[in-house]
Fold:
Amino acid sequence: MCPRSVEVDGELEILPDKATLWRTAADCVADLMREAIRRSASCAVALSGGSTPQEIYRRLAHPERASTIEWPQSHLFWGDERCVSPDDADSNFGMAKRALLDHIPIPAGNVHRILGEWPAETAARRYERELRDFFGAEPTSPVTPLQKGGIRFDLVLLGLGQDGHTASLFPNSAALEERQHWALATQVPGSGAWRVTLTLPVINSAANVLFLVSGRGKAGILRDALEGKGPDASLPARLVQPDSGRLRWLVDTDAASLLGA
Ligand code: 6PG
Structure:
């Protein structure tokens, strides 16, 4: 069962250790997917990348959870992708495939991956078309709530980068201002590596946004993300403020070690 939460900007739940975080997060994801399917006979989830969700995807694939989810009615998308081939160690799709997709009876047509092996701009445009086709939106309409022919993920999973980025929305980047496109090509500051990412309005139109943060290494940035005041382009995670959806942070004690300090 999703745990009782403490009010901050959204809801914060601090779990005693990594294993409890992974188990609780997997239960939470399974709950939300079942709920969405009960409510509307289908669910759309945007998976996050990076290292934190891997163990959570593994636990979601465990039979006791996976058998309770109607995968034929579940659609999996990605919040972002690195522009590498799917079998590259850095591929977010590749990680989710090994940890989850290879172990669940999800139809291939329900897996909507970002083609990281394509040039970033082309991959972003193609991903946007796929999103608009799936949510039944006009080719060029701006990001609008689902009821106005727009988009509404049942769940968007997010991580928190050391610099406060989330998905592939980096500090002080032009991508943070985007209001028209649903997906964009972005570059990692410093390395210039290309990424494709969902845009903020798409993330903020979700019914549920779940941040997963683990480890002492994230304590400083988590404190800034949760205790900082007001929206702050230098810390994109603070710009994740769902329009009408539920925002939750599931973190472990190590990551929470500087909160309230
Ligand atoms: C990515 C992610 C990114 C990630 C954070 C945290 O593709 O890298 O989507 O936003 O969630 O960088 O990454 P870790 O979980 O590896 O710390």
Notes: Strands lie at 6-8, 10-15, 43-47, 74-78, 80-82, 155-158, 183-187, 194-198, 208-213, 246-252. The longest strand covers residues 246-252. The CA atoms of residues 76 and 111 lie 5 Å apart.
